[in-house]
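Changelog excerpt

This revision adds worked examples to the README so contributors can see how folded entries look when concatenated. The first example is reproduced verbatim below.
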Amino acid sequence: MKKMTSPLHASAVTDFLQRVHSQLPAAINSIAASTAGNGGACNSDFGAVRGDYNFDFSLRLEGGQGFSNTGILVASANEKKTESGSELPLGIKCRWRRQITTEGGNVDELIVDIAGISTNMYQLSADDIGCRILVEATLADSAQAGHYRGTALGEMGPFELDPSTRKSLENSINAGGSRFPVTFYKKENEPKQNYMLHVTADEIKVIQPGVMERFDREVSIAYSAEFPRVLIHPLDILKFKLLILEENGNVCEMHFASLSRQSRDLIALTMRCFHARRHISTAALLDRVLANPGNHGTARLEHPSNSTKALDLCLYTDRLRGELMRQLETRGAIEKQYHKIAKEKLLLDDQLHDTITSYTGVIQHLQGEAQQPDTSRDPFFQSNHVPLGKYEGLQQEISNLKIELEEQRRQLIQEKHKAKLSNPFGTGGDASEKAEIERLKEENRRLLRTSEQSTEVRRLRVENDRLLEERETLHARLRQADQEKNELSTNFSFVKGEYDKLQMQGTSNYYYGGGSSSSSGAHAVLESSEYRALLEERNRLARRVDQLCEDAEKSKTTQDQSLERVMTSNARLLEEKDRLHREVDRVSRLYAEAVDSFSTSAGDSGRERANAEVVQKDEKIRQLELENQQLKARIRKLASI
């Protein structure tokens, strides 16, 4: 490799020296002409000026570090100091242009106007890296300027990328991409929204953050030959525009604003670097690097050397090697995912098999009951008021029937799965395998939804029991309040009667007892005190009666609300019962078809095992019938209440 690259390095050095030697006289003449012209000035902060004008003109760079893209170009015009004794500023109108420097050729064809700027200040951006800035200044108002006239030309550059942005750009490119927080405007005059730009080597993602990370919305923009394009706003140091090509061929504009000027330049340069890396061919780069030094890089050698061919081969081989490594990594990840899914599927198959075999007998018994009418059936279960325990039994039966169907399907495809596990990446069958996996996942989700319905039924049962207990409590409180009310009414009647007797006795004593005696006066005072005490007791008892009446009214209202909730829950349970009956009928029909197909292939051993399970399930059914009798008694008691 060292022998191959040494001729290339020598050729590049020779090419560079020849270009410097050819451009050195022109650069010296340009500097001499600019410093010797009218008002000409040139140093590290001032640009070269020239032209036909009779006023003082200067172009200077403010801010930034050297000739970097962080500064501001300021063009200023003043009166001649020798004529007025002072340097009063003159109003000027500027036309800014960007000159793209090249290694050779016609420079005038590579001058681009910077639209939208006519002031005397220009903010440098990422678009000016490697370019020279030209300004053409004329007086804004020639009538007020007096005898001053002419057009001044200024030039400064080329400009480089500032060190901090360069370091950040290198880190982003080496990491394969970066995220940039931005604000998004649908239009320039609309409110802004916080977005995130994720720039990678493969695509650009515009992310709209949600409440959580999983609720984020994103739009992917792929690199093409001409799009996406980044246009930097010439006046605002934060705004930029992204042009993308839609599917219908229209060009869409997306307006963004970054957090800082450096962030905006970094976004633009990162997108352009990845875009150029993806869509500039290696052959075009080699045409420029391995060009003929005698023609200043405009034509390639007619007969490339062996070292050039070897370099092309090495670059192409390295590119193919990288592509091969990426494909191998992708294949390894797919294999790991496939083996993981296969193991999970086998585990689920074993669990389904164990569960299905334990419930086969119960399903066959239910099928027999569905096909043969049962005349000895309890009329209580023929009514609409079915106990809640029956609902749970129906839910369990539905789940068992579904598991039985899955067992039948599993037996049909078990051999196919074993063959595929021995050769996971063999030809054929991949599409059916993926479809089967998706079907199993969908069935699993459906069974989970069924279990949620069973949970809801159990919750309603607990709620019903709680409401019944609350109703009994309210009845007890109401009876106690009625008893207290009756006692208070009795006491009130007794006190009122005693009060009337005392009042009558006091009246009779007043008329017939001789009020002048001392004994009668003392007796009257005693009766008056007793009267006041009885009056206070009467008022207290009246307030107590009113309070008890209010409590009774509140208890009655609460009882009515509880009763309404109980009736609503009962209606909802009846609807759930009807729906479960329909589901049982549907699953029974499906199971009948599955059993018909299974009975032809089942052996004697399967029948004996099924008969044993039938005996066990009969015993379990008898126990459930006893529990149902208890539930019937309880429901009848609730109905009577």
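The second example, added in the same revision:
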Amino acid sequence: MASGIFSASFWSPRRVDAALVIAAATLGVGNSWIKPSNGLLLTGAPLPLTATVSGAVGLLLWWRRRHPFAVGCLVVLCHLLCFTPTALAIALYTVGTTYRRQARVLAFFLIVASGADIGTLWAGGAWDPREAGYTLALAIGPLAVGGAVGLRRDLTTAAQAQLATLEREQELLVQRTRVEERSRIARDMHDVVAHRVGHIVLTAGALRVGAAAHDPKIADAAELIRREGRHALEELREILGILTPGRRAPRAPRPDADELSGLVERCRRTGQLISLCVEGFPEALPTVVQQALYRTLQEALTNAAKHAPGASVDVDLHCRVDGVHLTVSNGPPTRTPDDDLPSGGHGLVGLRERAALLGGHIHAAPNADGFRVALRLPSHPPTE
């Protein structure tokens, strides 16, 4: 890749202007010294005066971007005094790029520049068709090139704007597709999952009423199923509210540290052997940390019940200054796991993402006796 003065990034607009000013002034002075007769209205004037005017014309180009019309007029006027083709070409090029859509301005400069040169040639008695053609080319060429360059810039800008519009439209289309897909998922969840869970709740309620007088254990188990089903329906409605645009779900209470003991107790009623050890005050932690603790414990206990039925589970929660540590470990199963239980494989992935967002991490892997889940979170995560 080119570097230094040969790289495109080196030539900023100010550096380009400086280079053009130096080139125009140098060529103007040099032309006055090489061909003193090239002066138009200053023909026969002292050489230092002609050279000074030619150099000063080049210096005017420094302001060509900010005042293209004024600089163009001054350069044409100075061109009547002495022959400065370089400065005239640059000034007319700038006029062409700036006023490419204003035909009156372009016609004005074309007539003035051409008329000045041709009139000077005619008045000096040096009329030559070739000189006249060269003079017209000196006026028409820079204006035409400047207009073409300006038009190209307009087309490039329009193409970039159109591309940006297409990208925005594509992004809106993707967002719309996502919203429609989320709505479809919400409808499917409502039609299938909510219906089946609701049926389970109703069946458990009927079983509890029917078995209350005959077998209290069955009635208690049915009541547990009914409560868990209702909790599942509440959380499902909340998820449906998130997935469905324009619909607000009923704000069910979010689980926190106060629910940990209740979660453990409900799992014990299903037959799990769970020991719970809590050190510190988890209820004083930020809400997002409490929710992460609850969801992690819920997922770990669910996995232990599915993959290690009958195994004992040890839950240790330590709230310290340096952070929160939750460890859930279970032993080997005492019964054969039920293969009919669904397992999507997304629970631990979601827990890892939640822990990472809170600035912590989670480690879940088999150990010597069974399986171990270890969660570490900061006491005050960056999201708070």
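Reviewer comment on example two: The mean pLDDT is 77. The chain has three domains: 10-127, 181-243, 257-377.
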